[in-house]
Amino acid sequence: MTKLSVNINKIATLRNARGGNVPDLLKMAKDIQNFGAQGITIHPRPDERHIRYQDAYDLKAIVTTEYNIEGNPMDNFTKMVLQIKPTQVTLVPDAVDAITSNAGWDTVKHKDYLKEIIAEFKRNDIRTSIFVDPTLKMIEGAAETGTDRIELYTEEFADQFTLGNKEAIKPYTECAILANKLGLGINAGHDLSLDNIEFFKENIPNLLEVSIGHALISESLYYGLEKVIAGYLKKLSS
Ligand SMILES: CC(=O)[C@@H](O)[C@H](O)COP(=O)(O)O
Ligand SMILES: NCC(=O)COP(=O)(O)O
């Protein structure tokens, strides 16, 4: 079985647009879990444009499933994760001003750095995962860092799938086979959606977890529209 961890960044984006508490991030995180999701993912960014650091602390009491915090392990981030002690930390090499994540780690070049920071999280009983591009060299490098899991960066797959190029799954399958051999757990994320998730899962042996945010929240808006509009029309009809 592959666990679904819902990334709630976009709910915070909407909340922050008006400065109040609508939508209520904590309530929605609770409901998402009640609706069956097996995890909650957040990716606080240094400018706090969506998830705020305070949200990360507040969610600790709300997340009763798997709590996954993603981000670049700079000082503030690392300190926060060590205080919160989520189920899993996913390390992503984002630039401070990145619009969204756009690359995995160079696990060869940054092996010593990753080794050190991963050991620190593991000493604190936090499972580790590192965000990687689907290349065999990066998977081999990941195994040498001591990480528990990798997260396959799926944007390229998602883009190509939309264009009808199903061959784009190949490097992901090869990396998954190698990761399984090397004893690494496999997560995946970025631009996964209702359209591409089934095909992706079918082709990745032992896919443990996917974290999905942008598409899932967009799909929820779209599929929720009819019900909500009907609700308004009913109240306005007399
Ligand atoms: C790590 C990753 O794949 C990102 O997709 C992510 O966690 C989303 O971040 P944003 O919501 O800030 O785009
Ligand atoms: N780790 C990926 C993630 O949490 C969500 O990415 P996206 O679905 O918002 O692209």
Automatic annotation (TrEMBL):
Name the site position(s) for Transition state stabilizer.
151
Domain of life the protein comes from: Bacteria
Enzyme category, top tier: transferase
Q: Does the keyword NAD apply?
A: no
Q: Which terms are listed as keywords in the entry?
A: Cytoplasm, Pyridoxine biosynthesis, Transferase
Classification via Pfam families: PdxJ
> What is the protein's major site of localization?
cytoplasm
Residues the record lists as binding 3-amino-2-oxopropyl phosphate: 7, 18, 191, 213-214
Look up the record and name the pathway of this protein: Cofactor biosynthesis; pyridoxine 5'-phosphate biosynthesis; pyridoxine 5'-phosphate from D-erythrose 4-phosphate: step 5/5
Give the EC number. Answer: 2.6.99.2
Outline what the protein does. Catalyzes the complicated ring closure reaction between the two acyclic compounds 1-deoxy-D-xylulose-5-phosphate (DXP) and 3-amino-2-oxopropyl phosphate (1-amino-acetone-3-phosphate or AAP) to form pyridoxine 5'-phosphate (PNP) and inorganic phosphate.
Similarity-based family: Belongs to the PNP synthase family.
Note the NCBIfam families from the entry: pdxJ, PRK05265.1-3, PRK05265.1-4
- Which PANTHER family does the record cross-reference, listed alphabetically? PYRIDOXINE 5'-PHOSPHATE SYNTHASE
Protein's name in the database: Pyridoxine 5'-phosphate synthase
Q: To which species is this protein native?
A: Aequorivita marisscotiae
